[in-house]
Amino acid sequence: MIDDSDWELYGQMLPDLTELGELVYQIPTPDFLSISTTHGKTYDSWFPVASQCFRESYEALWGAHYALREIFAHNIWYLKKKDPPNEDAAALFGRFYADDAILRLYSAGEHLANGIIMMLDIPDEELKSFRIKGHQGNEKSSQQIVVGRYLCSKGEGYPFTEAIINLSKSEDWGKVLKYRNDWVHEQPPTIKGLGIVYKRERRWKHSSDGKNCMFLGGDTPEYSVEELASFIQPGMLQFIAAFTSILKYYKSKSESNVANFNNLSSRKK
Predict the structure, then answer these.
(1) What's the CA gap between 169 and 167, in Å, rounded?
(2) pTM for this structure?
(3) How many Å apart are CA 88 and CA 78, to the nearest integer?
(4) Pairwise CA distance, residues 247 & 73, whole Å
(5) CA distance 57 to 172
(6) The predicted structure's pLDDT at residue 5
(7) Per-residue model confidence as pLDDT tens digits over 4-34
(8) What does the CA dihedral 147, 152, 156, 161 come to, rounded to 10 degrees?
(9) Cα–Cα distance between 27 and 247 in angstroms, integer?
(10) Which element (helix H / strand E) includes 214?
(11) Beta partners for 213?
(12) Residue 155, by phi and psi: left (phi above 0), alpha (psi -120 to 50) or beta?
């Protein structure tokens, strides 16, 4: 019911996961990497486990990609195919899939960060100074922010460092993180097209001269569905670029470990 001509514009806005997906499934399993990494000497390396983190990150990213597609699909259906257009339904379903895409992107970022920690065998002690303490002394920084700060402090130490720095400085990725944090920890962001919205604040307002109180109606929505898609899509592209760079490095290191293991095995024979 939604044909190729309908997707002519929106299809171009969907990021391509082909290269990244191929990289993910070319990486050996944690078991195989555990054998080739140890060389019979040490068994405490986290490097092999990173492959599972990367796979989980890709699965979350794939889900976010699907949700982004559904934002566009519901926009096409309810605003272009339905007669008359149903703006309320477009906003409702658009918001549902936007929330889903953002939450899955955040999850993908956390899995990726944990994968980097394991890939590089970064001790937790080295990361502690990059965490922000909450008002009760609790660590509140997300893992991806902590790892980003850590890598930035190391300069151009790895081939993928620049891609991580670009992602951490990305305005669009920053909006993804902020939306998720507000959605979880504060009031869920309000969306245009879903009726009257209210911020979590007292409804009586002081006038500009401070002498009178005024009762105001609803508040201005923070986002439209189109605005959500406008930072989800480029944020996802930037995440894919960083993820691809990391996987290329990990694949290269994995292949080197396997080659060394095979050479060692051949000499023993």
Answers:
(1) 5
(2) 0.88
(3) 9
(4) 31
(5) 19
(6) 79
(7) 777 777 778 899 999 999 999 999 888 888 8
(8) 40
(9) 9
(10) strand 213-215
(11) 206
(12) left
